[in-house]
Write a structure and sequence with these properties.
The complex is a heterodimer of chains A (252) and B (265). Chain A has 252 residues and is an alpha/beta fold. Chain A has one domain: Rossmann fold, CATH 3.40.50.300. Helix content of chain A is 37%, strand content 26%. In chain A, helix 3 packs parallel to helix 5 and helix 5 packs parallel to helix 6. Chain B contains 9 helices and no strands. The longest helix of chain B has 40 residues. Classes of the chains: A alpha/beta (252), B mainly alpha (265).
């Protein structure tokens, strides 16, 4: 077993009476592409946000690279965050800034690069995502797929050791979905980083995943590799992957 | 009574709780400014950008309003002062009213209407599109980058706008006096400088720093804590204007008492 990059132990989270995560535990090894599957509203994004300190779990423990991310001072959390990349569902590009300013934003504030080095890095990541010509464009001038790519570029520009993807292919056509998914794999290989991808998109999961978990009713329904998942006899998993509505309570 | 309760879902105790939650939230949010403002990095570029933006946004409306305030004030006061044989005091009356009270308060209210809603909407939309979360995740303090810079811009730009409005209102007053009494510009200015003292200008300008702080804090607070998507953005924008205008008037009441007490003695 390799070094553990992420350790999630007995994490629970509720919003009022609504239990979103109930005693969730799993580990992600260094260099792994780990997928968190589940239907919409099953707490996948909440799980990611707990990992970066945007939300605080009600109980349990989360460690990134051996360090706990819960109940620690903000400056310590920020030190951990500098090594984490986060691609948001809607890309979350800063509207008021150009693509270049978006990409330079974390570099200016967290690292000591000269303006020339920053520009070089911006050009390199834009080349990686195939959008060199978009450098001076504003987010409002970009299509959905382009926004995802720029979001991805901003995520990787700091060369993080852990990249968290929140629904990276939602709202994209199947071809762009494949392109983005392949890009995730290529970038992971180049950067030798660890990835956690939250998705309900099977195309993306098949391309990206080494290993996956499936969340249902706030718990982990399945954990294993993607082939095991697809060939499972469990009714819920079969329905989930075929996209057919057979029985609302199937698999229970 | 029961049917009244059913028809009126807004519970009084709930409204009261919400009121105190808002007051507590706004207080701690705005006080955080003093903690973060001295911590590097200092985003001078952002502050300058916001000052330019806020100044340009507000300039047309304060230009028109400033001139008209002075003009109307002099036009309204002239017949009354004539009745008491005090027409020669018209320039002094206009300048003192404008510099001590009307200029600062009206500029602040116009500024609140234009800027507080803008800040509320801008930060609100950043909140609902996860841009503020993205900043936080990239180890940048979004409060410092988004809120402190806007609040500083408001604090610095409002006194400048007030001086500009004071000048325009006095010019508007001159037009009214010239048309009704036929006073020359030289006489008008001499009368103003004779009656106006430095201690009249200082309290009015000092107040505007506090008003700028209120406008920036309320707009940012409403936007930063926006919930419920685009509906929440609209709500943040309108409630920012209402709350900052109300606070400006309430704080003005207190500041007038304090400044009169300090400068009178």
């Amino acid at each position: 077993m390799g070094k553990l990059m992420v350790e999630v132990n007995n994490v629970s989270k509720s919003f009022g009476d609504n239990v979103v995560l109930n005693d969730i535990s799993f580990n992600v090894e260094e260099g792994e592409n780990f997928v968190v599957f589940g239907r919409s509203g099953t707490g996948k994004s909440v799980l990611l946000k707990c990992m970066v300190g945007l939300l605080e779990p009600d109980s349990g423990e989360i460690k990134i690279n051996g360090k706990s991310v819960l109940n620690i001072p903000l400056d310590q959390m920020n030190e951990i965050r500098k090594h984490i990349g986060f691609l948001f569902q809607g890309s979350a590009l800063y509207d008021s800034m150009s693509v270049r300013e978006n990409l330079e934003f974390p570099l200016i504030r967290n690292f000591d690069f000269s303006p020339e080095e920053r520009l070089e890095k911006v050009k390199t990541v834009l080349e990686n995502v195939g959008l060199e010509k978009a450098i001076d464009k504003k987010p409002s001038e970009l299509s959905g797929g382009m926004k995802k790519r720029i979001g991805l570029a901003r995520t990787i520009i700091t060369e993080p050791m852990l990249i968290l993807y929140d629904e990276p292919t939602t709202g994209l056509d199947p071809i762009t979905t494949k392109e983005i998914s392949q890009l995730i794999v290529e970038l992971q290989k180049d950067l030798k980083s660890t990835s956690i991808v939250v998705t309900h998109d099977l195309i993306c999961a098949k391309i990206v995943a080494n290993r996956a978990i499936v969340l249902k009713d706030a718990r982990i329904k399945f954990e294993g590799d993607i082939k095991e998942l697809e060939s499972s006899d469990d009714k819920f998993l079969k329905n989930f992957f075929s996209g057919e509505i057979v029985d609302a309570n199937s698999g229970e | 009574m029961d049917s009244l309760k059913k028809d009126n879902p807004v519970d009084f105790s709930e409204s009261l709780t919400n009121f105190f939650v808002t007051v507590a939230g706004l207080t701690s949010f705005s006080l955080r400014f003093f903690k973060d403002v001295f911590v590097p990095p200092y985003e001078f570029g952002e502050i300058k950008k916001h000052m330019d933006d806020l100044g340009i946004k507000t300039m047309p409306i304060v230009t028109v309003a400033g001139f008209i305030i002075g003009l109307v004030l002099a036009m309204q006061s002239q017949p009354v002062m004539q009745r008491f044989g005090a027409e020669s005091y018209l320039p002094s009356m206009v300048s003192l009213s404008v510099v001590r009270e009307l200029g600062p308060v009206l500029t602040a209210l116009l500024f609140a209407g234009r800027v507080s809603s803008g800040i509320g909407a801008e930060l609100g939309s950043m909140r609902v599109t996860e841009q503020i979360d993205a900043m936080e995740v990239s180890a940048v303090n979004p409060y410092k980058y988004l809120v402190v810079t806007r609040m500083l811009a408001c604090i610095f730009i409002l006194p400048l706008l007030t001086l500009y409005v004071d000048f325009l209102a006095i010019m508007g007053g001159f037009l009214a006096v010239k048309l009704s009494v036929g006073t020359t510009f030289q006489l008008y200015i001499n009368a103003i400088f004779k009656s106006l003292e430095f201690s009249d200008l200082i309290p009015g300008i000092l107040k505007t720093f506090v008003f700028g702080y209120i406008v920036g804090a309320v707009g940012s607070y409403k936007g930063y804590n926006t919930e419920n998507g685009t509906v929440g953005v609209g709500r943040a924008s309108t409630s920012a204007v209402v709350m900052s205008s109300l606070l400006i008037l309430l704080v003005d009441m207190v500041l007038v008492k304090i400044t009169v007490w300090i400068w009178a003695s």
